[in-house]
Specification:
With 83 residues, this protein is an alpha+beta fold. The chain contains one helix and four strands; from the N terminus they run H-E-E-E-E. The longest helix is centred in the first third of the chain and has 14 residues.
């Protein structure tokens, strides 16, 4: 099997979309996973954020800063209000 996981600089979006879809298939609605951000994964304009929760809401994947500290990789069931 050929490994096609190393996209060139122009094609990083397609593997990112495939990964997001994979996470969408894994997570249940209102479930999230804690991810620690490293220097190369900091979000532009939010460099102070050290930890995020990647979660599924309304069938879509979202990323939000974690207000509390959790162990990386922790699975969380979130109480998300409809806004």
């Amino acid at each position: 099997m050929e490994d096609i996981t190393q996209p060139d600089e122009m094609n990083w979006q397609i593997p990112a979309l495939i990964f997001a879809k994979t996470i969408n298939l894994i997570l249940d609605e209102n479930q999230g996973i804690v991810v620690n951000l490293e220097q190369n994964t900091k979000i532009s304009g939010h460099e102070e954020v050290e930890q995020v929760i990647v979660y599924k809401k309304n069938g879509e994947i979202h990323i939000a800063p974690s207000e509390d500290k959790f162990d990386e990789g922790s699975a969380l069931n979130l109480n998300i209000s409809e806004n």
